[in-house]
Amino acid sequence: MRFNARFRTSIRKNEYPKDFAHCYGCGRHNEDGYHFRTGWDGNKTITVYTPKPEHTAIPGFVYGGLLASLIDCHGTGSASLALHRKNGHEPGDGVEPPRFVTASLRVDFMKPTPQGVMLQAVGTPEEIHPKKFTIHTEVYAGDTVCAKAEVTAAVMPASFTVKK
Amino acid sequence: MRFNARFRTSIRKNEYPKDFAHCYGCGRHNEDGYHFRTGWDGNKTITVYTPKPEHTAIPGFVYGGLLASLIDCHGTGSASLALHRKNGHEPGDGVEPPRFVTASLRVDFMKPTPQGVMLQAVGTPEEIHPKKFTIHTEVYAGDTVCAKAEVTAAVMPASFTVKK
């Protein structure tokens, strides 16, 4: 799988406002979290992550819940990027991106995922409703597709910000 | 949701051999992991977990990847319990249970999951093949179903234990 460093200009890293930066998956202010970042590579969305030694299922293989977490955050980040682009914006232009939540997550585990390898989640966003996107995702370890997934993400409802 | 303490005699906690006890989700030897334990409550399988403060999505709500991880480990643990029972065994009888891996995971997020509440994943195992079970799962926060899920788990192939 080709790796393109351009995606590192990331919506996740730089652009969400502080109140939304506590996510265990992608929040820059969550010291214990994964710090996933999702960005564009052409018309694909990409998130990379190298699992830590503790993210093991059995020795040598990555824990499925880590893959699900990567796919989940990749999905919401990709939906955010897609709607932001549809609205005429790109990461870095100073406009706050829309915020999404996961409606559903489907993961098919294709191959055991080896430890010690950088993983790449590569997504194709599909608009299925003005406020809802499905992200078709493959997770690569090197050239091997270890998981295929679909995440449907919806624009975050206002009720999510009532409780703090 | 009724909570029944009987399930605490857990297959996950006590019975997997040491080589299989490193899982980030359920392994007793993974110091950084969740230490999920899954047991029977009648014909249902139950896993309980109270998310830590860092397992947040946005302040006040639990991170979806944590729920996916809980559901994933609940699914494989439940499949293990179900086949073990089919084979005439119960946790604590000294016979090593079968070990499962996740084939697929589907989660529908029904409601935002509040922080600070003990979560209960409650599963109904369905045998779909002699070596494969689908676990139909609901995750409760108090009386609220926050997620519905299906995990299909397969008996661990020998190839998983080649690499260590």
Query: Rough shape of chain A?
Result: globular
Number of E-state strands of chain A: 6
Return Rg of chain A in Å.
15 Å
- Provide the helix percentage of chain A: 10-25%
Q: In what order do the strands lie side by side in the largest sheet of chain A?
A: 1-2-4-5-6-3
Describe the structure.
Two copies of one chain form a homodimer. Chain A has 164 residues and is an alpha+beta fold. Helix content of chain A is 16%, strand content 32%. The first copy, chain A, contains two helices and six strands. Chain A has a six-stranded antiparallel sheet with strand order 1-2-4-5-6-3. In chain A, strand 4 and strand 5 form a beta hairpin. In chain A, 51% of the residues are buried. About 7% of the residues of chain A have low confidence. Strand 3 of chain A pairs antiparallel with strand 3 of chain B, so a sheet runs across the interface.
Question: What secondary-structure arrangement, pairings included, does this model have?
Answer:
Two copies of one chain form a homodimer.
Chain A: H1 11-14, E1 38-41, E2 44-49, H2 64-86, E3 100-109, E4 119-129, E5 132-141, E6 144-155
Antiparallel strand pairs in A: 1-2, 2-4, 3-6, 4-5, 5-6
